[in-house]
Structures are given as C-alpha cells and as structure tokens.
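note to self — DONT lose this again. spent like an hour looking for the file last time. sequence + predicted structure for the chain T wanted, 78 res
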Amino acid sequence: NQRVAEIEGTFKSFLARSDIGIVLINQFIAEMIRHAIDGHLESIPAVLEIPSKEHPYDASKDSILRRAKGMFCAEDFR
C-alpha cells in the first residue's frame, strides 16, 4: 500500500534527524507501521503514541509502553 509506505518513510526520516527528540504519532496510524515502531529501539527520539478524537488510546497496543513496563517490576516502585 502506497499510503502505508509513505507513512513509514516519513516516520523513518523523523528517526534519522538529529534535531528531533520526540516523535508523536497517532496510535491508529502507528498500528499501520507497527513493525517499524517495534523496530525502533533507541531512546532518542522517543516515540509516543497518542489518541485521536476518532480512535481512543489503547495501552495494550502501545509497544513502547509494553517495553517500558517490562523494564521494571513492582518492587522497583516501593
């Protein structure tokens, strides 16, 4: 799909820029390029998935959040 390829290309171009520290992406769009988001393992730029009016945020789909949760255990917060 040409639209998905364009979204993925734009996302990757943002990751490659040294002047970008945070990439905000609508979670609905992020689902279209989930493989590219899952492949981004660097901490900078940070990738944050956000909701839209039409599509509410679903934490279970946020791969970055799942990865962050896996870095901590309940005892870390005591």
